[in-house]
Amino acid sequence: MTEPVGLWVVDDDHAVRYVLATALRDAGYAVEAFSNAADALDMLHTGTVPALVITDVRMPGDGGLQLLDKLKAAQPQLPVIVMSAYTDVASTAGAFRGGAHEFLSKPFDLDEAVALVRRALPQPTPVATPVIAPAAADGSLLVGHAPAMRALFRAIGRLAQVPLSVLVTGETGTGKELVARALHRESPRATRPFVALNTAAIPSELLESELFGHEAGAFTGASKRHIGRFEQADGGTLFLDEIGDMPAALQTRLLRVLAEGEFYRVGGRELIRVDVRLIAATHQPLEALVDAGRFRADLLHRLNVVRLPLPPLRERSEDIPELAARFLAHAAQRLQLPVKQFSNAAFERLQAHAWPGNVRELENLCWRLAALAPGDSIGVQDLADTLPGAVAHAGNVAVSWTQPLSTWAQQQLRQHTPELHALAKAQFEQALLDAALAHCDGHRGDAAQALGLGRNTITRKLGSSRKQAPIS
Ligand SMILES: Nc1ncnc2c1ncn2[C@@H]1O[C@H](COP(=O)(O)OP(=O)(O)OP(=O)(O)O)[C@@H](O)[C@H]1O
Q1: Where does 156-218 show beta strands of DSSP type E?
Q2: 14 & 125 share domain
């Protein structure tokens, strides 16, 4: 009979140690439990090496991330699962930067934890220790505890370490730019520039020179050389917002540049090579734009190496009180006004709002309230005038979507949007898929089951996301 595989569980919380060790023993593993990092390290120094370690982050003495560093220094191939109740980007990125195998958000499902351990063992290919980047000073910028946000923070922490192209999708104001900044800030490129360009905000005739630069005299009005955003971002990250609005001719040029990794400035003869990580964002359903002939399918594949869908605020209403309190305190500080507090009823009212403008709308509302609401407590009455369009919904019972759909359709019809049925159908599908994936922490199989679809169908609908080499 073979020896059971030895696992170590390190957590100062007795209850977590107990339930986790018991579940893992039930699953057939030999488990050593430690209440602090020092005891685990002492054991390691005796020459005993476990097959896998699961450690908490916050503990008296050395925390889990310090333990991770020391374990990795002694045993680079040892898989370490880091667990924490604090799932923010700084913690997840810190863990993955330190070489963590996986990040487990507390509270966790025991079956999930055991399944994670099973997937981690045996470790067939050695994992290279990632480059250590400077710690982020401001990693807590992205606020959120909803399951979809925790999953997002884990994805950011992991993706920050590899220069793959990322496509961030989500409604307006959901934090797409903030996510792009976090991916850059936590990456080994953090000391190099983060350059953002909103494709929709630049007139199409200027966009090419804005992206790739131009030489003096390249066109009327080009009096001197202009260095484009690609060059400005060399060594760092280029964030292209509203990519769905990029004119067709430029899509073709962008695709070529991404494929070849080099380009000429407009009117230039010198071949420019840059090393840029590209992050694109859109609030539009790109697959529908492809179907409608407005976006190149090959460019979509190139950008869509990894997709990060951001949930709308109304689907994570549990995050609203924390966000609102932070925005209100921040606004008061910036406006040098006394700090106010929301009443509980006001929080409930905010949670019942439909938030078409998402986090940005909430942030703007808090600035208005910081400046205008009388008294030091903000009640439902103070919100009554500011949230006129609110559609009340009780608890977690969502509002119906047919009315907003009808308003949207009328608006599109007025704008003569082509292929409206195809566009609406694709948006409907995308919204369902995004919701199901967020609900299932990104597990396609579970999402397919939840929607009553086959796994192959959901994979097909999500589109093929071929792995592409980044431009270098
Ligand atoms: N999770 C979050 N925590 C804290 N602030 C957030 C969060 N998400 C968004 N915000 C804030 O909301 C505002 C809008 O965010 P951001 O500009 O990143 O959204 P966006 O999705 O890029 O919007 P758009 O599509 O309109 O460009 C910003 O002020 C940002 O700081």
Answers
A1: 166-169, 194-198
A2: yes
Index of the ligand 1 atom closest to the CA of residue 177 = 18
149 domain residue, yes or no: no
Q: Is the CB of 241 under 6 A from ligand 1?
A: yes
Predicted TM-score of the model (pTM): 0.65
pLDDT at 21: 87
Ligand 1 atom closest to residue 362's alpha carbon, by position in its atom list: 12
Q: Does position 129 have pLDDT exceeding 50, yes or no?
A: no
* 221/103 same-domain check: no
Number of domains in the chain: 3
What sign results for the dihedral spanned by CA atoms 377, 328, 345, 353? positive
Cα 253 to chain centroid, rounded: 28
The answer to whether 301 and 465 are in contact (CB under 8 A) is: yes
Does one domain contain both 167 and 295? yes
142 CA distance to ligand 1 middle (Å): 9
pLDDT given for residue 122 in this prediction = 61
Q: Is the CB of 181 under 6 A from ligand 1?
A: no
174 C-beta closer than 6 A to ligand 1: yes
Q: Are residue 202 and residue 244 in the same domain, yes or no?
A: yes
Distance separating alpha carbons of residues 43 and 14, to the nearest angstrom: 19
Instruction: Looking at the structure, tell me whether residues 304 and 376 fall in a common domain.
Output: no
Q: What is the CATH number of the domain that holds 363?
A: 1.10.8.60
Could you list the residue range(s) of the whole structural domain that residue 68 is in?
6-139
| 234-290: pLDDT as tens digits | 999 999 999 999 999 999 999 999 999 899 999 999 999 999 999 999 999 999 999
The closest residue, in CA terms, to atom 16 on ligand 1 is 175
**Hey, what are 110's tokens?**
């025991």
What ipTM was reported for this prediction?
0.98
Torsion angle of the four alpha carbons 188, 194, 199, 200, in this order, in degrees rounded to the nearest 10? 120
